[in-house]
Amino acid sequence: MKTDFLQYQAQTSPHPLMVDVSHAKGSYIYDTDGKSYLDFVAGVSACTLGHCHPKVVKAVQEQTEKYMHVMVYGEYIQSPAVQLSKLLAEHMPAPLDCTYLVNSGTEAIEGSLKLAKRATGRSQLISAVNAYHGNTQGSMSVMGAEHRKQAFRPLLPDVDFIRFNNEEDLQKITHRTAGVLLETIQGSAGFLPPQNDYLAKVKKRCEEVGALLILDEIQPGFGRTGTLFGFEQYNVVPDIVAMGKGMGGGMPVGAFSASKKYMHLLSDGPKMGHITTFGGHPVIAAASLATLKEVLESDLMQQAVEKEALFKKLLQHPKITDVRGRGLMLAMMVESEDLANHIILKCMEKGLILFWLMFEPKAVRITPPLTISKEEIAIGCKLILESIEEWKA
Ligand SMILES: Cc1ncc(COP(=O)(O)O)c(C=O)c1O
């Protein structure tokens, strides 16, 4: 299988981790040699309820037996997609009452950017230095890291960047700006939360000049930071919110929400201003609905905050310089890039999954399923500390 994986399946890096997956359940992934891995990454913030949560599996099975794909997005009434959109509207602040379902995070960003352009009649897009919003060409255009996109230019024109948490740069947002796209908590940059009411100030500037604020909730969304959406903690309501990853409970999905007034613009002038075949897929929407219900009806969001405190308490070591982030979106910062690499690889050997952050080499990603138990957190943190002790610089 390993040879075939390397030969026939396209690779994304020269050194894939190559865990040969047999099955996964709860907080654990098992390989074909019978080794178990405690998962502190959750498929990169995607498996909100752990692996194969029974309610998600049941929703998928039940829907599969009724119908799967029947028609392109938006033509037929398919109850899982309708119920999901309605439940989201009931739990988002006004005016975010209408949701467009797509297939991935980057597509949610593409739709959001198009909506901002369509709603304002402007073209300029602004995002942040070190921002990551996905890998299709629109999302890549607003990525705040030139070295990663140079090879793919030309990308979208009329894109500018501001420094996250820097208030001086807000003057770059002008009457020419269609949309300002920010991650509520900057992910790839190192899990940097907004400070000093920054997002509210960005929103105010957007209102002054008639630009739309788009918040990327693809990682913090769906309860990961202790509230359904991260922005609820920062005194701001965006005009458009993009979501993905954790909303599928392990299935591929994305969505963007806005007011009905704005969203209507995508169906008129031009008609079919945004279309997708599989968006709102009934099986995926059923999985997402089951995930959303569980997040809302359980105390997982409150637990995320308690578990954050536990991680911060347990991850104390002179070589750990900080544990950043909110809820279960945490980055353990260490002294050097080499040490971060050592911890991630050593823990893999010990049966604990950790991962890197794209633009912050001294960070170790800790984004476990929200369902992880306190005992599992203690087991994993012990392995991390052990691996640091084994480090010989
Ligand atoms: C903040 C953020 N935005 C967008 C995306 C893109 O999502 P996807 O990989 O589902 O296209 C990601 C994925 O890592 C992300 O972390």
From TrEMBL:
Entries under Gene3D superfamilies matching the protein: Aspartate Aminotransferase, domain 1, Type I PLP-dependent aspartate aminotransferase-like (Major domain)
Top-level division of the source organism's lineage: Bacteria
Keywords: Aminotransferase, Pyridoxal phosphate, Transferase
Cofactor: pyridoxal 5'-phosphate
GO function terms (MF aspect): identical protein binding; pyridoxal phosphate binding; transaminase activity
Keyword field contains Transferase: yes
Family: Belongs to the class-III pyridoxal-phosphate-dependent aminotransferase family.
Name this polypeptide is given: Acetylornithine/succinyldiaminopimelate/putrescine aminotransferase
